[in-house]
Amino acid sequence: MQKQVEYQEAIKTKYPEQVVIAIAKDRNGKANPITLGWTMIVSGTPPMMAIAVAKTHYSIEAITHSRTFTIAFPSSEMADAALFFGSKSGRDTDKFAEFDCKTEPAKAIDSVLLADAVANFECTLESQVPAGDHIIFVGEVVSAHINTESKKRLYTVGPGHKLGSAS
Ligand SMILES: Cc1cc2nc3c(=O)[nH]c(=O)nc-3n(C[C@H](O)[C@H](O)[C@H](O)COP(=O)(O)O)c2cc1C
Questions:
Q1: Is 121 a pocket residue for ligand 1 (Cβ < 6 Å)?
Q2: DSSP string covering 36-51, please?
Q3: Is the CB of 90 under 6 A from ligand 1?
Q4: For labelling alongside 130, which of 1, 65, 73, 138 has CA 20 to 30 A away?
């Protein structure tokens, strides 16, 4: 049986929610990472993934400028990086200069990979769709990478950006 409630109450049931870090270079060549929970796989052939970015975020400028972005699956040990990248803006911060997070050059696009992530996906911007206060960026995956070590993914496990592993 279902009970009708406000959206804000029902959506609290969503946890655990996956966490990704998307990275795009801005017009000055600065790689800007942003932490995101609103993300999904949207096509299998060709492989495509989507991210929803708030219209006010600096990442909008970086992604629309470079038209390419990395989607990294951070590991459960990367909670501090995810919180830093998810609380500072690239508008006034060089996040990779201020937070020690190992990167590697991407292979097919002008971006970087997160060396300690579970996996990285290099995407070229395929389309963008306005959705309320966010813009959905759909990227075609042109190169994919996995960590040579076995690692667990990072999730948001409860309200207030409580991060951890799902199991
Ligand atoms: C766990 C977590 C999940 C987040 N999910 C989203 C999201 O799905 N979409 C979004 O626009 N911002 C999300 N944010 C907020 C942005 O990461 C944050 O506002 C960031 O500082 C914006 O960076 P930018 O201005 O450099 O683009 C999330 C933050 C955290 C910590």
A1: no
A2: ES-EEEEETTTTEEEE
A3: yes
A4: 73
pLDDT the model gives residue 7: 98
Report DSSP letters for the chain, one per residue: ------HHHHGGGG-SEE-EEEEEE-TTS-EEEEEES-EEEEETTTTEEEEEEETTSHHHHHHHHHSEEEEEE-BGGGHHHHHHHTTS-TTT--HHHHS---EEE-SSSSSEEETTSSEEEEEEEEEEEEETTEEEEEEEEEEEEE-SS--PBPEEEETTTEEE---
The residue whose C-alpha atom lies closest to atom 31 belonging to ligand 1 is 86
Say whether pLDDT at 92 is over 90: yes
pLDDT tens figures, 124-163: 999 999 999 999 999 999 999 999 999 999 999 999 999 9
- Decide whether any atom of ligand 1 lies within 6 Å of the 86 Cβ: yes
